[in-house]
Amino acid sequence: MANDANKSEAKVTGLRAPKPCVMCGKPSDRKFHPFCSKHCADLDLGKWLNGSYAIPVVEEDGAEFDEEN
Ligand SMILES: [Zn+2]
């Protein structure tokens, strides 16, 4: 497994390349770091909110009518 050493060396990139947008993988913009745009930042925010709050799923297939009976 001597190849492993080579692999780890290749992993280290000394470039100060911007991290890819965590949402879509495009190069992130400094203004919206770590995202590429406000759009992706908003998407991520929504994702976190969704994790904390269960989005009320609209399941209105007449269920309410049944209860009123
Ligand atoms: Zn993005």
Automatic annotation (TrEMBL):
Cofactor binding remark: Binds 1 zinc ion.
Gene3D superfamilies to which the protein is assigned, alphabetical: Erythroid Transcription Factor GATA-1, subunit A
SUPFAM superfamilies on file: Glucocorticoid receptor-like (DNA-binding domain)
GO BP: any one term: regulation of DNA-templated transcription
Entry cofactors: Zn(2+)
Keywords: Metal-binding, Zinc
Pfam families tied to this protein: YacG
GO MF terms, alphabetically ordered: DNA topoisomerase type II (double strand cut, ATP-hydrolyzing) inhibitor activity; zinc ion binding
Protein residues bound to Zn(2+): 21, 24, 36, 40
InterPro entries per the UniProt record, alphabetical: DNA_gyrase_inhibitor_YacG (IPR005584), Znf_NHR/GATA (IPR013088)
Subunit relationships: Interacts with GyrB.
Family: Belongs to the DNA gyrase inhibitor YacG family.
Protein name (Swiss-Prot/TrEMBL): DNA gyrase inhibitor YacG
